[in-house]
Structure formats: structure tokens, C-alpha cells
């Protein structure tokens, strides 16, 4: 019997360190941890799929929470049942009431676990939907206030125009022009394209 851990955060910007520390405190080696930095909506995650290929009957998989398994109610319940049907035990640090064991539970205990599982997965999906709504509302408010979303734009400055003209006239090399305009290479050529397109400057 082996014990594995599955860790998930929703994006590459989020840090999985807290979950890793939790698993290490439970005695799980880092080599037995499977980590995804992806949304919990879909189960099309590389580390999660690899974990399912690795586990065998009698193994244990530990999750920090049912939300780390997934945030889609029906799919999460199906995945939970897949592990159970394949003899893999599940442990949830924050929701031990839905942990599974090799022991035969009485009907009442099993019924309670199923009810709790339904409630937890429903709340997980509801929370994901609310997060999406808040994000959409935040974007709408920002747009209404005239705020720019995404990568900040670099405006055309006098420094750029002077450097551009000297570069075009052959008085500066490309590198010198970039330094004078205080722009990185990719930004410089993007601004050159914008400048020439808007002013038809040749």
C-alpha cells in the first residue's frame, strides 16, 4: 500500500506551498505528490491523470479538501466513486467525514457520508460560479471606469519619437535607439509598428 497526495491550485500565479507543507506534515514524500496548477472545473489535468494511472487497489490518496479534487459537482462525485470502486482509499484533511476506508461501513454511516459529499461538492461548484461572477463584475466595473485591462500599454513619448527619427535617419543603431527610448527590444519594435501604422510614417 502506498500513500499519495494530490495538490491543486487554480493558476500558475497561486502558490501550492501550504498544501505541500500539509502533506509533508502527514509524512508524505514530495516524490509522491501530484501537483496541478489548473482550474478545478475540468479533470483534464496532466498530474491528476497520471495519479489515476499510478494508483492501485489498497493505495491511499490524500487531498487538502474536496475542492482540490474538483469544483464541478457531478464530475467530482464521479471521480470520488471511481477511486472507491477501484479500491483506493480517499482522505480529505479538511473534511474527514467523507474519508473512505477498507472497512465495511454500516448503512447509516455510508448514507451520511454520501449526503455530506453531495453537499460539499454542491458548495464547491457554487463557490466556483460565484468567483466567476465576481471576476466578470470586476472586469465590467473596470471597463466602465475606463481602466485598461491586461498588459499595460506603452504610450508614444517624445523620447521614442526622437529615437525613432534618428534611427530612421541612420544616426542611431537599433540598440542605441532602444536605450535612448528606454524600451526593451520587443516593446520597441511593437511601438515602431504602431507608430508607423498610425502616422503612415515611412
Summarize the structure.
This protein is of the alpha/beta class. It has two domains: 3-126, Resolvase, N-terminal catalytic domain (Rossmann fold, 3-Layer(aba) Sandwich); 158-199.
State the main characteristics.
53% helix, alpha/beta, 202 residues, Rossmann fold, 10% strand, four-stranded parallel sheet
Describe this structure as you would to a colleague.
With 202 residues, the chain is of the alpha/beta class. The protein has 2 domains: 3-126, Resolvase, N-terminal catalytic domain (Rossmann fold), CATH 3.40.50; 158-199. It is built from 8 helices and 4 strands. A 4-stranded parallel beta sheet has the order 2-1-3-4, sandwiched between helices. The model has no long low-confidence stretch (mean pLDDT 84).
Shape: elongated
Tell me the series of helices and strands, N- to C-terminal: EHEHEHHEHHHH
Counted by DSSP, the helix tally is 8
**Order of strands in the sheet with most strands:** 2-1-3-4
CATH topology of the largest domain: Rossmann fold
Nearest-integer average pLDDT: 84
Gyration radius, in Å: 26 Å
**What is the β-strand count?**
4
The CATH architecture of the largest domain:
3-Layer(aba) Sandwich
How far apart lie the N and C ends?
71 Å
CATH class membership of the largest domain: Alpha Beta
What is the CATH homology-level superfamily of the largest domain?
Resolvase, N-terminal catalytic domain
Poorly predicted runs: none
Helical content, roughly? 40-55%
Summarize the biggest pleated sheet.
4 strands, parallel
Pairing-aware structural class of the strands and helices?
A: alpha/beta
Give the domain tally. 2
Amino acid at each position: 500500500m502506498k500513500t499519495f497526495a494530490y495538490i491543486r491550485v487554480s493558476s500558475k500565479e497561486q502558490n501550492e506551498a501550504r498544501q505541500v507543507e500539509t502533506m509533508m506534515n502527514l509524512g508524505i514524500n514530495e516524490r509522491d505528490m501530484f501537483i496541478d496548477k489548473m482550474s478545478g472545473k475540468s479533470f483534464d489535468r496532466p498530474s491528476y491523470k497520471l495519479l489515476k494511472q499510478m494508483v492501485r487497489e489498497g493505495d491511499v490518496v490524500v487531498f487538502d479538501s474536496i475542492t482540490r479534487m474538483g469544483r464541478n459537482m457531478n464530475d467530482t462525485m464521479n471521480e470520488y466513486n471511481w477511486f472507491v470502486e477501484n479500491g483506493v482509499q480517499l482522505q480529505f484533511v479538511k473534511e474527514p467525514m467523507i474519508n473512505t476506508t477498507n472497512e465495511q461501513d454500516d448503512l447509516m454511516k455510508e448514507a451520511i457520508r454520501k449526503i455530506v459529499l453531495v453537499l460539499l461538492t454542491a458548495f464547491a461548484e457554487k463557490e466556483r460560479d460565484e468567483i466567476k461572477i465576481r471576476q466578470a463584475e470586476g472586469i465590467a466595473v473596470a471597463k466602465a471606469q475606463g481602466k485598461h485591462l491586461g498588459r499595460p500599454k506603452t504610450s508614444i513619448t517624445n523620447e521614442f519619437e526622437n529615437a525613432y527619427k534618428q534611427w530612421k535617419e541612420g544616426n542611431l543603431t537599433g540598440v542605441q535607439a532602444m536605450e535612448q527610448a528606454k524600451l526593451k527590444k520587443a516593446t520597441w519594435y511593437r511601438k515602431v509598428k504602431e507608430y508607423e501604422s498610425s502616422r503612415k510614417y515611412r
